[in-house]
Amino acid sequence: MKLTTAVLTVGAAVSLTTAVVGAARLRQEARHQAERNEAVVARNQLDWLEQTSTNPDLAKLWTPEHMEVDEYVQLLKANQLICSLSLRDRLGFVRDGQLAFYAAMVMSSDVCRRYWKRFGALRAEEAEGDERAERFTRALDQAAKKHPQAQAAAA
Q1: What is the C-alpha to C-alpha distance for residues 133 and 128, in angstroms, rounded to an integer?
Q2: Distances from the Cα of 141 to the Cαs of 31, 43, 76, 120, 136, in angstroms?
Q3: Max Cα–Cα distance, the chain, nearest Å
Q4: Is 68 helix (H, G, I), strand (E, B) or coil?
Q5: Is 130 strand, coil or helix?
Q6: Residues 84, 68, 109, 153: what is their CA dihedral angle, to the nearest 10 degrees?
Q7: DSSP tally for the chain: helices H, then strands E
Q8: What's the DSSP call for residue 129?
Q9: By C-alpha distance, which of 50, 135, 123, 147 is closest to 97?
């Protein structure tokens, strides 16, 4: 092989390697930006839930018909817990094997089961098309259905 051919081959290999590394870096940066965006949106939602659940006048504005404000505030607190767990899951802090455990722990709370009974279908609809959100929602739904009190009520 001539020296010029060798230099051109090495140059092409270096260029290709640089392009591959650059593309991987861009994908990683995009993933990190998506995670930052996810955290900001979740923080906004959690802040709204906190404000609404601690301010009865504000909660009254958002309370669904045929529901008492006190009950709605309790359900907002349950939603706050579920949203926090959802964020942890979306950011990768919940391993696949842990999700069922955490979901069962959340659904061991009566208020969380009441929240899920009232708003679980809405959460499932909201999750449509987002594989990770659908998986999270299925885990909570299964935990709610497996809870002994839910099974006793169904019998």
Answers
A1: 8
A2: 28, 24, 18, 7, 9
A3: 85
A4: coil
A5: coil
A6: -130
A7: 7, 0
A8: T
A9: 135
Measured between its terminal Cα atoms, the distance across the chain in Å is: 81
Per-residue pLDDT of the chain (155 residues; tens, 9 = 90+): 576 777 667 677 777 777 767 777 778 888 888 888 888 888 888 899 899 999 999 999 999 999 999 999 999 999 999 999 999 999 899 987 899 999 999 999 999 999 999 999 999 999 999 999 999 999 999 999 998 876 666 65
90 — alpha (psi -120 to 50), left (phi > 0) or beta? alpha
Least Cα distance to 107 among 126, 130, 85, 132 occurs for 85
Asked if 54 and 62 touch (Cβ cutoff 8 Å), the reply is no
Token digits of residue 73: 């505030």
- pTM (predicted TM-score): 0.79
Q: Which two tokens stand for residue 55?
A: 């301010």
Residue labelled with tokens 């659904």: 107
Burial (CB count within 10 angstroms: exposed 0-12, middle 13-18, buried 19+), residue 79? buried
